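Appendix C reproduces, verbatim, an entry submitted by the partner laboratory led by Prof. M.T., so that reviewers can inspect both the input and the predicted structure.
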Amino acid sequence: MTPPDNNPADEAAQLGGIHIKYFHHCPRQLWLYARGYRPEQRSELVAFGEVVDDTTFTRRRDVDLGEAKIDWVTAGAIVHETKSSRAPSPSHAAQVRHYCLLLERRGVSVRGGTVHYPLIRRTTDVPWGADARAEAETSEEQARAVIAAAEAPARLKRSACRGCSYLDYCWGD
């Protein structure tokens, strides 16, 4: 299966949270996504995540930044992200740091973030400061390099791909 012919430079110009999450989860997934390959539209796990997002924290309002859509931001400038995962992931925190960076670039004095895991009734705080800002900027640079690459990054070990909507592309015959 060949991904659609999209210009990855256009994608790299506007990095959203999904780009950073994919970069941290699997650079190959980011590379494919940047080229328009979007199998998550057919994924039951993605659909389940959307239901979890739609049915939890229903009083909140999304913050649409154009390139990124933040689940919500509290009055104290705390970024909130909801995940349907049953386990915290470094990619989730990286996504929140990216949102903090995008807000800061727009003049918002961000204090940090929180990742909510409603299925396990747990939250993870994501601090924001000079170190977190540097991590977010480094993630952006590295994600842009992956997107600009002429060839797809190597695939992960198959065991790391369980539940990934890109599994068939990477491991199919």
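Residues 1-5 have pLDDT under 50 and may be disordered. Additional entries are available on request from the coordinating office.
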